[in-house]
Design a protein that fits this description.
Number of domains: 2
Oligomer: single chain
Strand order of the largest sheet: 1-2
Low-confidence stretches: 1-10
Mean pLDDT: 87
Order of helices and strands: HHHEEHHH
Structural class: mainly alpha
CATH superfamily of the largest domain: Winged helix-like DNA-binding domain superfamily/Winged helix DNA-binding domain
CATH topology of the largest domain: Arc Repressor Mutant, subunit A
Distance between the termini: 58 Å
Keywords: DNA-binding, Transcription, Transcription regulation
Pfam family, one: Penicillinase_R
Protein name: Transcriptional regulator
Family: Belongs to the BlaI transcriptional regulatory family.
Organism: Streptomyces pseudovenezuelae
Radius of gyration: 19 Å
């Protein structure tokens, strides 16, 4: 089949996708994880060195911390998923020429539950 990985090989993932998968593995637990822990969690034939390289990139970006509690080479996330996503949303708003238009577009795509939650948050903030 065209475009699929040969048998016995895994599909190649981009760096951003691997970063997201590694962060998801870290967010799924309360403890720091070693590259080997993450490699086992993610699976898919990912090489240990690849996991270690992505963790170093995440560390250099300030997204993970190395555990200083004695587990050599263990990592944990600096921010939770909601914090990281909110930060990305703020950066996106700051980059655009018209943040109000961007917000308008964002809000028009919310489903009913998300809209209700947003209204409640804004009402709480105004109170």
């Amino acid at each position: 089949m065209a475009g699929s990985a040969p048998q016995g090989r895994t599909e190649r993932r981009g760096s951003g996708e691997l970063e997201s998968e590694i962060l998801a593995a870290l967010w799924a637990t309360e403890r720091a994880l070693t590259p080997a822990d993450i490699q086992a969690e993610i699976g898919g034939g990912l090489a240990y060195n690849t996991v270690h390289t992505i963790l170093k990139r995440l560390y250099d970006k300030g997204l993970v911390l190395r555990d200083a509690d004695g587990r050599r080479g263990a990592y944990r996330p600096l921010k939770n998923a909601a914090e990281l996503t909110a930060e990305a949303m703020h950066k996106a708003l700051d980059r655009g020429p018209d943040p109000i238009a961007t917000l308008r577009q964002f809000v028009t795509r919310l489903d009913a539950e998300q809209e209700k939650a947003l209204r409640a948050l804004l009402d709480d903030r105004a109170a």
